[in-house]
Write a structure and sequence with these properties.
globular, 24 helices, RNA helicase, Rossmann fold, binds adenosine-5'-triphosphate, 620 residues, eight-stranded parallel β-sheet, alpha/beta, 19 strands
């Protein structure tokens, strides 16, 4: 039955993180020893703000509506109370079999991610906790069998739950806890009908958690549908939304974006893992192929890749197989675009005005983030609004240990910027955000590579600066010593020239072909038609990019005499963008290796045509 409650019946509690509360530790929380063991294994030494506020209240059985920034640890804030409650009930009756917790998320990726967190936190619980992710790709009969075993926890998109409830494979009769993670996205991803159906199916009295990075009218709707007098946690940490992250903006022309990216990664000016955000899918592959020319490995993430591959890419990045991930916020691709003034969005619980709702670029594009394919058809047709599209692909995904976010193409809104930079500096760690900003006068000068939204960069940057300023954070200008960097231009141009439109299309198609080859669904078809598989494999081997082995190393004469520091203008050197002794040493060693090669083999100065060219063409 529907449990529409009027939130005004009983006043909600509003907590902020600014208060100087007694420090809560995990030891001080009444958690099962098996969960404590898992916390140690996971290196969770102290709770994050949202955890220290939400867990004690949740353990008391309160409904929670928590807004906390991306990366603030919201997952454990509900997973621990959910596990605790299951273990507590089972301590009285180990044979208890009931599905008592339902966790709803908007996408398959998030389902997988949440299940991984549950598995690691219940790793010392033996068979006491069993969870099933309904979005995994298994046959209906396998899924039915898993559900017949009555798992304790279901993680799913709303659509999958509804279809399993409708065909009686899943019963929600014994549900005790309901979590809606990324609550602000769930409705906008086209699950409205499913959510309404669930509101009727969920029993009265279930403890509800609504976790969200922003409080929107969608969250308010969910609160009305599922919550009883929730405790509302609006958490703003001192280091919230961009705190702990050093933010820099580099004004540069379109082609300089490529030049600087080459220099930054080839000379390892940035240490650690990096997410590069670009404006669309083609840019993803252009940059990937460009970096490949210099022997710099990266992987791509975009909405064109099937969900399975996206999950795989993030896992590989998290495992350290790749240090660079190039993510296309392809929701930002503009078919027709215009700047519109949107009506101010009212916050869910007050008359506060969300100042993100200022000027936004209205988008009309065919690229959509794909929610669960089984979302109600009518809703599936519903396009995501510009605001929701803005940070669809990476939102909520836990990219681990990201040292730097590079906005190769600036996003179109300050809110999207906040979400992008939230991929670094997670769980109290520090991070760096570097954004390329194309000045108005530079826009359009470099046609083949110009990105259409770049003409708004300066306007967007002022909004970003304003928003970050309100939060007490500074976006500082960063200057490279362009005279030094220029010496790398010839190589940059050479590499960029090799990355033709055809090469990009080929790389894009190749990625999809690989997915076809890997597809479970097509396996039988390929078994029956081996020639087709052979053709696909063969096509995959064609390489449309000219190989230029000489680009893979950096000749000595290109390095400034002062080392890498010489690439940064003096006012920016003190910010020390990732420069450390270790990488300086790496460069020194690389130079020594190069020198060694020159002596040993034929790759000496004279044998390198680029060096000869430069030696004549430039003053050294
Ligand atoms: N108490 C803690 N100690 C150490 N690491 C933590 C702690 N809490 C969370 N983390 C780590 O911080 C990262 C971010 O956590 P999580 O994904 O739960 O954030 P989130 O708030 O859900 O972010 P998003 O809104 O992007 O989904 C994860 O890698 C997680 O393992």
């Amino acid at each position: 039955m529907k449990r529409k409650l009027d939130a005004n019946d009983v006043p909600s509690t509003d907590a902020t993180g600014g208060e100087n509360e007694a420090q809560i530790t995990f030891e001080s929380l009444p958690l099962d020893p098996r969960l404590r063991q898992a916390l140690v294994k996971e290196n969770f030494s102290k709770p994050t703000l949202v955890q220290s506020k939400a867990i004690p209240l949740a353990l008391e059985g309160k409904d929670i509506l928590a807004r906390a920034k991306t990366g603030s640890g919201k997952t454990a804030a509900y997973v621990l109370p959910v596990l605790q409650s299951i273990l507590q009930r089972k301590s009285n009756d180990l044979s208890l079999k009931e599905t008592s917790a339902l966790i709803l998320v908007p996408t398959r990726e998030l389902s997988e991610q949440v299940q991984r967190v549950i598995v690691s936190f219940s790793s010392f619980c033996g068979k006491a906790v069993r969870s099933v992710n309904l979005t995994q790709k298994v046959s209906d009969s396998v899924q039915r069998a898993m559900l017949a075993d009555v798992p304790d926890i279901i993680i799913s998109t709303p659509a999958r739950v509804v279809s399993n409830v409708n065909n009686s494979a899943l019963s929600l009769d014994h549900l005790r806890q309901l979590v809606i993670d990324e609550a602000d996205l769930v409705l906008s991803y086209g699950y409205e009908d499913d959510i309404n159906a669930l509101a009727k199916a969920v029993p009265r009295g279930v403890q509800t958690f609504l976790m969200s990075a922003t409080l929107t009218s969608e969250v308010d709707t969910l609160k009305g549908l599922f919550c009883r007098n929730p405790v509302i946690l609006k958490l703003t940490e001192a280091e919230d939304e961009g705190g702990g992250i050093s933010q820099f903006a580099v004004r540069c022309a379109e082609d300089e974006k490529f030049l600087l990216t080459y220099v930054i990664f080839k000379l390892q000016l940035v240490k650690g893992k990096c997410i590069i955000f670009v404006g669309d899918i083609d840019r993803c592959y252009r940059l990937k192929l460009f970096l490949e020319q210099f022997g710099i490995k990266s992987c791509v993430l975009n909405s064109e890749l099937p969900a399975n591959s996206r999950i795989h890419v993030v896992q590989e990045f998290n495992k350290g197989v790749y240090d660079i991930i190039i993510a296309a916020d392809d929701q930002e691709v503009l078919g027709t675009k215009k700047i519109k003034k949107t009506a101010a969005v009212k916050n869910a619980d007050s008359n506060e005005v969300d100042d993100d709702a200022e000027a936004e670029i209205e988008e009309s594009s065919d690229d959509e983030v794909q929610p669960d394919e089984s979302a109600s058809t009518s809703n599936k047709k519903q396009k995501l609004s510009g605001k929701q599209k803005d940070y669809g692909i990476s939102r909520g995904i836990d990219f681990q240990n990201v040292a730097c976010v590079l906005n190769f193409d600036l996003p179109t809104t300050s809110k999207s910027y906040t979400h992008r930079i939230g991929r670094t500096g997670r769980a109290g760690k520090t991070g760096m955000a570097l954004s390329f900003v194309v000045p108005k006068e530079e826009y359009g000068k470099h046609k083949p590579t110009s990105y259409p939204t770049a003409k708004h960069d300066e306007a967007v940057l002022s909004k970003i600066i304003k928003r970050q300023g309100k939060l007490g954070h500074e976006v500082r200008p960063y200057h490279f010593e362009m005279k030094q960097v220029e010496s790398f231009r010839y190589r940059m141009t050479d590499a960029l020239r090799a990355v033709t439109r055809l090469a990009i299309q080929e790389a894009r198609a190749r990625e999809i072909r690989q997915e076809l080859i890997k597809s479970e669904k097509l396996r039988r078809h390929f078994e029956e038609n081996p020639d087709e598989l052979r053709h696909l494999r063969h096509d995959g081997e064609i390489r449309a990019v000219r190989i230029q082995p000489h680009l893979k190393h950096v000749p000595d004469y290109l390095m400034p005499s002062k080392g890498k520091q010489g690439l940064m203008a003096e006012d920016s050197q003190r910010h020390g963008v990732g420069i450390g002794k270790t990488s300086e040493n790496r460069i020194r060693k690389a130079r020594e290796r190069n020198r060694g090669k020159g002596r040993r083999g034929a790759v000496g100065k004279k044998a390198d045509p680029l060096k000869n060219f430069n030696a004549k063409g430039r003053k050294k």
